[in-house]
Specification:
It contains eleven helices and four strands. By secondary structure, it is mainly alpha-helical. The strands form two sheets. The protein has a two-stranded antiparallel ribbon with strand order 1-2. Strands 3-4 form a two-stranded antiparallel sheet.
């Protein structure tokens, strides 16, 4: 796998990420109230600052363009994650999760999905290292995903369906019919039983893995280094939970999010195919030179697209509910 990061840095980074996850767990364990906007704001600022500090460290100390690749990857993963938040809202609403339990559910679900994403990341890096034509597959898939996002339009409740896995678990597990605050396991008539929070955690984890099918190929279009891919995903996912509580009410206002994300995915898909062509020794199509797209232009394009998406969405007046 192509990485210039030494083993000791890998080990130190993984230890640091584990410590952050443990810190999160301690905060959740001590909190005796539902997450407030103030709580969420403080933690979103903390996680974004942490990611920025890490990226600056890579710019200063990292080899080559890894710093720029990290920022491009982190912004892409974080923006794709915002689309995921809408599905989280649907899951929480459909399962009627108590407010006091939502933080714990998201925490466990996201940590599990981070572990599963790590498997995807190393598998993807190994595939790219073994065969450069993997870029063609990733690029075509991203372009397909971009077209699908445009055709599907805005997010709605059909974006989440209870699959066979969830239905099977609901039949097979000893579940209580109701929640018990934020407890996962309770005693009922001398028998240990699980609460429906377990099903919700599985739903969150599965949703995150499905989202990775888009986001992992996308970030490999910006960097081939598994260290950058892993850390960008980790920082994006760790800040995702707090972002859910901060902007959950604003999600319906970001009406052009799918359109903006489709533009970004399409751009990265084209970039991947161009890199595959150059890797195959094809620098020209007839007399036309195939341009290479560097990481700084890519970063600028992603940021500009997200900015236009956000401004255009918020500039459009919300629908007049009273008129309906």
């Amino acid at each position: 796998m192509p990485t210039a990061v030494p083993l000791e840095v890998w080990i130190a980074t993984i230890i640091g990420l584990v410590l952050i996850v443990v810190l999160d767990l301690l905060v959740i364990a001590r909190r005796d109230h539902a997450v407030t906007v103030k709580d969420a704001t403080r933690w979103v600022v903390f996680y974004v600052a942490l990611a920025v500090a890490f990226g600056v460290g890579m710019l200063v100390l990292g080899p080559g363009h890894t710093g720029g690749e990290f920022f491009a990857g982190y912004i892409t993963e974080y923006s794709l994650s915002v689309d995921n938040l809408f599905v989280f809202v649907i899951i929480m609403t459909r399962f009627a999760v108590p407010a006091i339990a939502q933080d714990k559910v998201l925490y466990i679900g996201i940590v599990l999905s981070l572990l599963m994403r790590a498997v995807f990341i190393f598998a993807g890096a190994a595939a790219i290292s073994a065969a450069s034509w993997t870029f063609y597959i990733f690029g075509a898939f991203l372009i397909y995903t971009a077209v699908r996002l445009v055709l599907e339009g805005e997010n709605d409740e059909d974006d989440f369906q209870e699959g066979a896995l969830l239905r099977g678990l609901q039949r097979a597990l000893p579940l209580t019919p109701e929640y018990s605050a934020d407890k996962l396991v309770v005693q009922r008539d001398g028998r240990r039983m699980l609460t429906p929070l377990v099903i919700v955690i599985v739903a969150i984890g599965v949703a995150n893995v499905v989202f990775a099918l888009d986001s992992i190929p996308a970030i490999f279009g910006l960097t081939n280094d598994p260290y950058v891919v892993l850390t960008a995903n980790a920082f994006a996912l760790m800040g995702l939970r707090q972002l859910y509580f901060l902007i959950g009410g604003l999600l319906e206002r970001i009406i052009y999010l799918n359109l903006g994300l489709s533009v970004i995915l399409g751009f990265i898909g084209v970039k991947l195919i161009i890199e595959a062509l150059h890797g195959s020794g094809l620098a020209h199509l007839g007399s036309i030179e195939i341009p290479e797209i560097g990481i700084l232009p890519s970063l600028g394009f992603i940021v500009a697209t997200l900015a236009v998406t956000a401004v255009a969405s918020l500039a459009k007046p919300p629908p007049d509910v009273s008129a309906s």
